[in-house]
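Collaborator request, handled under Task 6.
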Amino acid sequence: MAIESVLLNVTDIPRSVEFYRRHLGAEVIEAGDDNAVLDLVTAQLVLNRIDAPAESTWVGDDLQRGFRHVGFKVSDLDARVDALHDADVPFHLEPIHAEGDVRITFFYDPDGTLLELVEGPLQYHEVYDREAVEKDWGLGDPDRPRFDHVAETVADLEATKEHYGELGYSLMSGIHQPSDDRGFEINFLRHGDSSLEIFTYDKAEKAERSPQLDAPGFVAVAFEGRTAPGTAVGTAGDREVYSGPDGLLYTIENA
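Structure tokens returned to the collaborator:
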């Protein structure tokens, strides 16, 4: 797996641990007052408590470049949605049948990180790496929610492919969005057992976001074992944080 973990800032460790255990089947590897590490099958979720957090500048609009959401594969979407509703979890998008013949839904964790559930194997409109797609499908229906992807909006797909190519990623597949008049396309860069889901909007202007490490929510993706091609923008704990071309923040494990 190329994505080792996803780093989140949270304001209450026990609350977040319980949320991810209850609603995403996370298994606790370790948990303390200030941080926790959770297992989500193909990657870990690293939670760090943040005191006096800054107000997040993240906007739930896919036209803002950089991080968009964290996605998980499930085999029981309706049951999980019912449990989320019973717990009064706020939704961004109720379940729909989406392009690629899958069912999806979006909701927020207690600190505002946008999460997606995906049920079913994506039927890609474009396949650029058949072997990678077969390996993706070969993971099958998960017994419990499985980390699947981190999504970001970018300005230039070619620059994105080049940047993450230095981290071992290659273009696997694509999904068209013919009903979206903003020129919306989704491409998948693959390495290991998870993807970077790349949004492009050729007919709409995108907004930039400055790096932010002191707000609740998503902080960074941790890639394993490579030298960072990006620009260092600060630290998260003892990890140096880098920025990709469109502001997706990441760290390097074992660098």
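The cover message to the collaborator said: "The mean pLDDT is 96. The chain has two domains: 3-56+213-253, 66-201. Please let us know whether this matches your experimental observations."
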